[in-house]
Design a protein that fits this description.
With about 625 residues, the protein is an alpha/beta fold. Helices cover about 35% and strands about 20% of the residues.
Length: about 625
């Protein structure tokens, strides 16, 4: 597929996005922090109102890297972490990189068997964790011994630091704060092959069984940071070393890990929220620090609409799970004119591959004004001059001014964008691909590669991806998880419009087959989100025991508060009879108090299938999984 045929290149020209960033820097990931610490000395991290500049972060990174080296860890050894979104996570990740080691992040919310599986597979030589996770660690260490244990208190980076540290129950474990204080910043000299040396082994969510470790190199992570940073086009040049960003998502997840590196590479302040469910703290930090961007997941934005958002102006970037139009509209309506852009990625791709920036087209008046703006920014001295002015004003003032301007423009263009002829914002799309992301679309039935003419003409197919951010393979075998041409199979069925915007029709594993007909679960879920009083909806398929190879459509509904008695199974079935094909009408509907979510706030369809199996097919021999 020739580059000239790629339908999204015209959007690149509108936003001023380069077609390629090659050649990428032949530098290890830790250089992003080193560069930012040199250029933007006053920018840094904010945790529980405690502020730490990037030069201070670098100092602690060098101390921890030195300590790991002194513990006998050598290049390529793995270091596991059990840390929330925190200053500790940032320092640990960069210190592991600086020492030439490989980071294996994990979550304290994972089931014990998955945590043990990660450690058995990765064989870490050291573990860094919070003291509040020690009970989880002690149980795991009985089955997977790890020699070097470093323990931190979350309050080690706060306005109220601990005064005393009690003995740790785990033999030879060390307190983080004492290790940092007693170690000089003298990290080892390490030579890197950035295309082969691993920075990260990031285990997938495990929805299809035990998690697989994605081997991500220094090139993968650095390249994706550059791709993400340039996704908004030339306008990012104005804000380097200026903006403040609210980070409310887990850093141990691929989306959080990637955006953390991107924000450091761009020199942005990062407000770190350790508890992804703490939307009250998010609103308080937004009002206190005026971040212009919030990185989050759909569930967080949905919960934020339940907070007082009057006069809150922030640009949301959502990933990890599908973003419903209802959440976008409610967030826009409840706030003072905020907007949410949806992104897409997968762990195997470091993870980001797409972003929907059409909200910016709307508030800036369409493609022509955006194109003129990007050309203006490219004039000699313009970007540097505006950036210097922004830096003189300071992050908080710039965040306030940009937020107010965005809020005004969002309100001004909200009604105009509802008119079909003037509509430029696209919702329900994951956006356009990042530069250097290569894509092929495979016809589901024939297995043939579709041309872009066929795809833009309306054909759908499964998306395959590769690029500089693509993993080496699944641990420990390079090449595993890739097809013969080096593409990653996403499992997502997509369609593409004439401007190169991608739409997820469904996941192949979530597609429901009813008597030979394909039922797209996501389409049913999107329809149900429009039903009054629906908080969450999930559609799954379970085997039809009377028809081999066929499935029943099963629906789970979580009502909003106050609608518990208004929504009934019969009403949902009658509603769907008027909105979907006859074969897609559910056989089973269940109204539940809460739909289970994964640790990164995705709907846990694996658990829902188990629930349905236990209730409706207790004697079935088939074990249902994703």
């Amino acid at each position: 597929m020739a580059g000239a045929d790629l339908p999204w290149l015209k959007e690149y020209r509108v936003f001023g996005i380069p077609e390629t960033f090659k050649p990428y820097p032949d530098q290890p990931v830790y250089e992003t922090l080193y560069k930012t610490a040199r250029k933007y000395k006053n920018q840094g991290l904010i945790q529980m109102d405690y502020r730490m500049t990037y030069p201070e972060v670098k100092d602690h990174v060098d101390r921890l890297a030195t300590a790991l080296h002194h513990k006998g860890l050598k290049k390529g050894d793995r270091v596991a972490t059990l840390l929330p979104t925190s200053i500790q996570f940032v320092i640990a990740d960069y210190a592991i990189s600086r020492a030439g080691l490989v980071h294996v992040p994990a979550s304290s919310l994972e089931p014990a068997d998955q945590l043990q599986h990660k450690f058995k597979e990765g064989l870490p030589q050291a573990l860094i964790c919070l003291d509040e996770y020690l009970d989880v660690i002690q149980d795991t260490l009985q089955k997977v011994p790890i020699k070097n244990i470093i323990v931190s208190k979350l309050a080690d980076y706060s306005l109220h630091k601990p005064q005393n540290y009690e003995p740790i129950k785990i033999k030879e474990a060390l307190w983080w704060s004492e290790l940092i204080a007693n170690t000089s910043p003298d990290p080892p000299d390490v030579t890197f092959d950035v295309e082969k040396d691993l920075e990260l082994i990031l285990f997938t969510g495990g929805t299809t069984g035990l998690p697989k470790g994605c081997m991500l190199t220094h090139r993968n992570i650095y390249a994706n940071a550059i791709q993400n940073g340039n996704a908004l086009g030339r306008s990012h040049l104005l804000a380097e070393g200026v903006l403040t960003v609210l980070m409310g998502l887990p850093f141990f997840h691929s989306y959080g890990h990637s955006t953390m590196h991107c924000m450091i590479n761009e020199g942005y302040n990062q407000i770190l929220i350790p508890d992804a469910r703490d939307t009250e703290s998010m609103v308080r930090m937004i009002r206190e620090y005026n971040p212009f961007i919030q990185i989050g997941v759909p569930t967080q934005f949905m919960k934020l609409t339940q907070q007082e958002l009057k006069d809150v102006n922030i640009l949301g970037i959502s990933g990890s799970a599908p973003l419903s139009r209802n959440v976008q509209e409610e967030f826009d309506k409840k706030s003072g004119g905020s907007g949410i852009m949806e992104g897409y990625g997968l762990s195997e791709m470091s993870p980001t591959t797409h972003l929907n920036t059409s909200f910016l087209l709307r508030i800036m008046g369409g493609r022509i004004p955006v194109r003129i703006n990007s050309l203006f920014i490219q004039l000699p001295g313009v970007a540097a001059g505006i950036n210097a002015l922004f830096r003189a004003l300071g992050s908080k003032n710039v965040g306030y001014l940009l937020g107010r301007a965005m809020g005004f423009l969002s309100r001004l263009t909200a009604d105009a964008d509802k008119q079909p002829k003037k509509k430029v914002e696209k919702r329900g799309t994951i956006g356009i691909p990042m530069p250097d992301t290569e894509i092929k679309i495979i016809d589901i039935d024939s297995g043939a590669v579709l041309s872009w003419e066929e795809v833009c003409g309306g054909k759908t197919g499964e998306m395959y991806l590769r690029g500089p951010q693509r993993m080496l393979g699944y641990w420990p075998e390079p090449g595993s998880g890739l097809d013969r041409e080096g593409y990653v199979r996403t499992g997502d069925v997509v369609r593409v419009d004439e401007n190169g915007y991608f739409y997820i029709v469904d996941r192949t594993k979530d597609m429901i087959i009813v008597s030979g007909f394909k039922v797209y679960s996501r389409e049913i879920e999107d329809i149900l989100q429009n039903y009054p009083g629906v908080e969450r909806a999930a559609a799954i398929g379970i085997p039809d025991l009377e028809r081999q190879g066929s499935e029943w459509v099963c629906i789970f509904i979580e009502p909003q508060s106050g609608y518990e008695t208004e929504i009934t199974e019969e009403k949902i079935i009658q509603y769907l009879k008027t909105t979907v094909a006859k074969y897609a009408v559910p056989k089973i509907v269940r109204i539940v108090d809460t739909i289970p979510l994964t640790e990164v706030q995705k709907i846990n369809k694996k658990m829902l299938r188990r629930m349905a199996e236990m209730e409706f097919q207790p004697s079935a021999s088939r074990s249902i999984s994703d």
